[in-house]
Amino acid sequence: MLIPKVKICGITNYDDALAAMEMGADLIGFNFYPKSPRYIRPEEATRIVNRLPAFIDIAGVFVNSTLDETREIASQCQLDWIQLHGDENAEFCRWLAYDSPKTMKAIRVKDSSDIQQADGFFTDAILFDAYDPSKYGGTGLTFNWNIIGHVGKRIFLAGGINPDNAVAAVELGVYGIDVCSGVEASPGKKDHRKMQQLFDNIRHLRA
Ligand SMILES: O=C(O)c1ccccc1NCC(=O)[C@H](O)[C@H](O)COP(=O)(O)O
After folding, report:
1. Which of 23, 36, 86, 138 has its CA 20 to 30 A from that of 63?
2. What's the CATH code, domain 5-206?
């Protein structure tokens, strides 16, 4: 089994970023969607990135931003990954993939027909998240992971992953897991004990 990557999303401050990295995160995510309770200004994200050792990938979460805005923030914040978490279509993703860092398209899953959508996106990875009619992400909701089946792409699994269900998530054999509210004290502030617990619980599967 491939060693699964762990992405800790919704980082808003340096302490949480450093803790996530030291505990074993492969990626941290900054949220550039202004309506998110985890929104961070690009200038602040840049300050955090510049203080971090360069051993971690940085992802930026975008919801229906323009191409220009997405590219500008990606460059300013030295993003390794652009995570498109809104209603971006395949063409938009292709334009970005052409001259940008790695791209990841989020698909919010209601049923197995949503899983099949993954084929239509030419991105470096697909992120499957839970569907909520009123929110784009960070909901803490899970979906039925059994419907994922085989997808011939790198898959990040997201949606309600926490220290208790992280082992089951990793055992699905996905490329990575993406965790946000399940390791928070409050929106935008990580609970370091929960985060450590999550990494401890899956350590044997990443050795
Ligand atoms: O976290 C948010 O507030 C958010 C808002 C709008 C779009 C995306 C958002 N988060 C993106 C993520 O990558 C989250 O990690 C993912 O949705 C899983 O969240 P959770 O269920 O809380 O673990």
Report:
1. 23
2. 3.20.20.70
